[in-house]
Specification:
elongated, 2 domains, 3-stranded antiparallel β-sheet, about 625 residues
Length: about 625
């Protein structure tokens, strides 16, 4: 009774305006980093008016700053008893409990913060960082009454809407891998400034498209939107991918794997429309996506370079599945893999249409290994073993080679339905040096280059449909992984020769009458492996920490990134012997860099390879 009376007397004599003023001065000191003064102000307010929850919350945040999570928890609990409607209180309680290892209780507190204060960004970010993105109060998308179709695939080309008219659009793109030295491919730069600088350089190289393989952090989409808003006459377009790992046992219909793939499709659509919240997941970008870039998303490309052995296994597993009738795409007769690809593309189109009343062209990733053409110079493994047996030769087991030309994916088996307003296209990763049949086929050699001959053959098969070469290029590695009949080797070029060959490949794509090409890649990727060097890169997971000039896969970048100081790298060995045509071709790996720092050549005032590429009108 005495305690109760004392509390009532304190509340009766409490000067609430003065206490609130003290709380405000406490927050001002807190924001300046003056914790002692902040604590004094909050304590004075609490002493004057114990019923003010804001004072308890302030003391809780001070204790968090000082590393006393247990004391902070007690303060926030007291504050919640005084005012359960204060979002700051629940947010702080979640922080304290998270630091104490009470992760489930922390998530509950952050959810409560959002419940009492919808739109509380810090609480939402805390939940996403904890990997929670379900059941959150995210506003429903506003579906426009009229359909939104910013781009379409019309016959053999892309078109973009300008006002009320459609204009032809030829793709001059660059593939954006974002792994900086020392990073795995899923460790993306988190800041807007990095992407803003890159987009400026990409635009300066006369590219009009940036291709992404997967969802990047929110910073990229903010930077992309900011670039387009600031450059109305030089806007960039986006071709967005949906990445996938292979399913277990090559069963693409395995329910859990297929559900994850489709969930990623939905995330991509919501991300480009600026209405997505994605919780932290290993190997993926995450955060709040609020930059709507959908007006300049040209197309979607789903999947990866599907491995032939996986396609073969799936075709055998689902051999009776040979047709598909969807809302936007259909297959009258094809392989189970053809049907599956069309079904997934149709699913993504349907989700964007139903959710956002929008549409754009779509394709799946394909490559020459799975093209629908027949290549007489490329024996399958079965054909090769039969030939060796007939000639009395021992079996030859190719450990590091796919069974090229044994399976195929054919985009021409897919047709659009009347409901499809944006079209469908074929997308290939096509390089001049692989598979070998490109350089071995004499009919391809009748053209200006074997690569152009192959593209013309591919174009004939896809007559009437837009055909995009979504990856092409050669690397500047000292090491050579594959030779090409026309000198377009997989490595073995200096940077000027690399630029000249990339220009020639770019012209081949245009001269073949295709819908465009997307050069691989924006920057050197140290995490990559190549069959020539992989056995010597031990342990494999540390490849990302050093730049192997012998590894062709690490040296495609239009923007070069080097180890050491800002001076030019000094390789070891005899450079003259690094030509793949030199007698006794041998290249020694250069000396280990003196430091582990890195700088791009653009930081030294020029963009590696972009200058020669631009000056010879590769992207004119």
């Amino acid at each position: 009774m005495i305690v109760l009376v004392t509390g009532l007397l304190l509340q009766a004599t409490c000067s609430r305006p003065a206490a609130l003023a003290a709380v405000e001065r406490g927050w001002e000191a807190y924001r300046r980093g003056e914790l002692a003064q902040a604590e004094s102000r909050f304590a004075a307010a609490d002493s004057a008016c114990p019923a003010i929850a804001a004072a308890q919350a302030g003391l809780g945040f001070v204790l968090l700053r000082r590393g006393d999570a247990k004391g902070a928890e007690r303060r926030f609990v007291a504050a919640a008893r005084g005012d359960a409607s204060a979002g700051d209180v629940w947010y702080g309680l979640g922080l304290a409990r998270d630091r104490l290892g009470k992760h489930t209780q922390a998530v509950t507190a952050w959810r409560h913060a959002l419940a009492v204060a919808p739109g509380y960004g810090d609480a939402l970010d805390a939940l996403l960082a904890a990997g929670v993105d379900s059941g959150l109060p995210v506003p429903a998308p506003a579906r426009p009454a009229a359909p939104v179709v910013p781009a379409r695939a019309a016959l053999e080309r892309f078109e973009v809407r300008v006002g009320d008219a459609w204009q032809p659009f030829y793709v001059q793109g660059i593939n954006l891998g974002a792994a900086l030295p020392g990073k795995f491919p899923s460790e993306f730069p988190p800041d807007d400034s990095t992407y803003a600088r890159w987009l400026g350089l990409i635009a300066a190289a006369h590219a009009n498209v940036v291709r992404l393989y997967t969802i990047l952090p929110p910073a990229f989409y903010r930077a992309f939107k900011a670039w387009n808003d600031a450059h109305p006459d030089g806007r960039l377009w986006l071709v967005h991918g949906v990445w996938a790992e292979l399913p277990r046992r090559s069963d693409y219909d395995e329910p859990a794997w297929k559900a994850q793939f489709r969930a990623e499709m939905r995330r991509v659509v919501d991300v480009v429309h600026g209405r997505a919240v994605i919780g932290q997941r290993a190997g993926h970008a995450w955060g709040r996506y609020d930059a709507d870039v959908s007006d300049h998303v040209l197309a979607y490309i789903i999947g990866r370079e599907w491995e032939p052995f996986s396609i073969k296994a799936f075709n055998a597993l689902r051999r009776t599945r040979t047709a598909y009738a969807g809302r936007f795409l259909a297959v009258d007769r094809g392989t189970p893999a053809d049907v599956w690809m069309a079904e997934q593309c149709d699913y993504m189109l349907a989700y964007e249409w139903d959710t956002w009343h929008a549409s754009r062209p779509i394709a799946y990733t394909n490559w020459p290994t799975l093209d629908p053409l027949h290549h007489p110079t490329e024996a399958t493994q079965i054909e090769e073993q039969a030939l060796r047996k007939r000639l009395g030769l021992p079996p030859n087991v190719r450990l590091k080679e796919y069974d090229n030309d044994s399976e195929s994916l054919d985009a021409m088996l897919v047709r659009t339905t009347d409901a499809n307003v944006a079209g469908y296209f074929a997308s290939y990763h096509a390089y001049p040096y692989y598979p070998d049949f490109i350089g071995l086929d004499s009919t391809y050699g009748a053209a200006r280059s074997h690569y152009l001959g192959y593209l013309l053959d591919l174009k004939r098969h896809h007559a009437g449909r837009a055909l995009l070469i979504a990856e092409y290029g050669v690397p500047s590695a000292r090491g050579v992984a594959h030779l090409d009949a026309d000198g377009m080797h997989h490595g073995g070029h200096d940077e000027r020769a690399m630029a000249e060959r990339d220009v020639q490949l770019t012209r081949d794509i245009r001269d073949a009458g295709l819908a465009g090409g997307i050069l691989f890649a924006w920057l050197d990727e140290w995490f990559k492996h190549n069959w020539v060097t992989i056995d010597a890169e031990v342990p494999a997971e540390r490849t990302r920490l050093w730049h192997n000039v012998m590894d062709a896969e690490q040296n495609y970048g239009l923007l070069g990134v080097y180890a050491g100081d800002s001076g030019a790298p000094v390789p070891g060995g005899n450079a003259a012997r690094c030509s793949p045509t030199a007698p006794g071709y041998v290249c020694a790996l250069g000396p280990t860099p003196r430091t582990s720092t890195w700088r791009s050549s653009a930081q030294r005032g020029s963009t590696r390879r972009a200058g020669p590429l631009r000056s010879t009108a590769g992207f004119a």
